[in-house]
Write a structure and sequence with these properties.
mainly alpha; globular; 13 helices; about 280 residues
Amino acid sequence: MSSLTSTEKLYLEKLLNMQGGFVLEFSDGSYGELFGRHKVNIHHERYQTYGTSKAKKLRAFWEQESDVLVGNVLNELIDFYVTKCELNDEKCDSVLLEKSQAIVRRLTGVTTPRQVGETVNDFLHREFAFPNVHKLPVESMAVILIQGRLEEARKALQVGAYLSVIFLCGSVLEAVLLGAAQKEPARFNLAKASPKSPDGAVKRLHEWSLAQLIDVSCEVDLLKPDVKKFSHGLRDFRNYIHPYAQLASGFTPDEHTAKVCFHVLKAALASVAGERK
């Protein structure tokens, strides 16, 4: 049982926008993936004490689990909040953010504030060039498709088709990371973050989600940590290919969002191709 106080829960609920049963902009799938990275099945009936909404499951999780586990999950939720603010070119609520980060430090036993990570503006000001796609660890037939989608994404950005840019970037990222995993299956399967079936066996590569491919690619040093962070933002935006997910979140991409996603893809491909400086 965590030691979260009633006051701390109020701050966290406000930051995580838990009104109406939601938690930020998570779908059921992405919510389950986040908790899965901490070996928690948040959709299990044990967390349905108060109901089946994401917010109610989180409240039950707070009550049932240890300070450290709750703190680690909250830390990732807060990172998600910050990244979404940056990718949407919005200002985070500094008071709520500071209070929530202090709560996480108390729960996890960290006595000093974490160093502020690279912001989206810092990231955008770094130069990344698209690598020679033939250096990417994917099948030769897939290279042709990747080249076509990259060119289509460029054209979509020029004409203001921002949602299309995001979908194309997300699809290329997933194809390249899956291709890399298929080239070196043992390296990916042995990673701690590799997704497991209920029987403990590693899932087949084609069953891995993009989130899992991103996490394992970082663990095996194919993606740099900064690219991993922003790749998860691109992945979340890509999920709005489902109209009702976009409707529920109120997400409306603009030029800034599309450029960030395009930049993330460039950085990811450079990293995978071994051309990242």
